[in-house]
């Protein structure tokens, strides 16, 4: 009796896993709703070596320093959330422009610019003035996720680069770690992203780290934190000083793209207040439970949400430019 029940459960589990896998494959192979001028084959004839160049540089960078994977992925998030996916986050300040790098959510925390610079240099050598920095960042973020053990997806290409950046817009649009679930939903909805997208994209915090200045209020003041977890984090992050000290967002597997982030949320071991808001008696609780138990579902929804996020207000056609250096306009 118990043997038959266990075989039945195992078979059901296998069918469920196979179904999720097939759905993920369909997502990656099927045409995606997107900006009409974006296409995965945009550079097929003008720069056919582009995918291989990007992958080789990202792979080399992650072998040297695995934390750069999360850094590159974060660059893409922070680019798309400020005036769309236009490469503006990569621009250095100039005497005439205060860019996004020194915004509250970026200063002293954005990294990985050298990876994008290295890719751009090799791409320019292969196909000059052809591929945008915005598209390089989109490809690099996908490859970083895949190399860290996460899903892959078809990256839609054809974006052009912004001529300028905005410190004020970055300060307004980037979600702070103090955000409530209600505020997060409003911010993401304003970008055309649903609660499911929000919850799946937040799973990017299964890799990466946060500064003491970002998580101090959560581990000292919030009641929804496991006491032993909070006590250890307080030891690393005192009430005064040590703002630059960093801890991994996912202490279990900080350089592995998996579902540990969601399991940490359920155990109330989240490093950031805004993350714990996803599992705090609100509308996202069910999705967190779902992803924590079903990695294939998380991968499928994350891939779909990354494609949607990559479609936020791209510059196409004659808009913007193709920068020859990602840190400055031509």
Automatic annotation (TrEMBL):
Annotated compartments: Secreted
UniProt entry keywords in alphabetical sequence: Calcium, Disulfide bond, Glycoprotein, Heme, Hydrogen peroxide, Iron, Metal-binding, Oxidoreductase, Peroxidase, Secreted, Signal
Domain of life per record: Eukaryota
InterPro entries the record matches: Haem_peroxidase, Haem_peroxidase_sf, Peroxidase_pln, Peroxidases_AS, Peroxidases_heam-ligand_BS, Secretory_peroxidase
UniProt: substrate binding residues: 175
Principal localisation: secreted
Signal sequence, renumbered to the chain: 1-34
Active site: residue positions: 78 (proton acceptor)
Binding site for Ca(2+) 1: 79, 82, 84, 86, 88, 100
Catalytically driven reaction(s): 2 a phenolic donor + H2O2 = 2 a phenolic radical donor + 2 H2O
Cystines in this chain: 47-127, 80-85, 133-326, 212-237
Binding-site positions, Ca(2+) 2: 206, 250, 258
Entry binding sites for heme b: 205
One GO CC term, this protein: extracellular region
Cofactor comment: Binds 1 heme b (iron(II)-protoporphyrin IX) group per subunit.
Gene3D superfamilies named in the record: 1.10.520.10, Peroxidase, domain 2
Site residues (Transition state stabilizer), renumbered to this chain: 74
Role, per record: Removal of H(2)O(2), oxidation of toxic reductants, biosynthesis and degradation of lignin, suberization, auxin catabolism, response to environmental stresses such as wounding, pathogen attack and oxidative stress.
Family in the record: Belongs to the peroxidase family. Classical plant (class III) peroxidase subfamily. Belongs to the peroxidase family. Ascorbate peroxidase subfamily.
Name the UniProt record assigns to this protein: Peroxidase
Species this chain originates from: Zingiber officinale (Ginger)
Taxonomic placement: Eukaryota, Viridiplantae, Streptophyta, Embryophyta, Tracheophyta
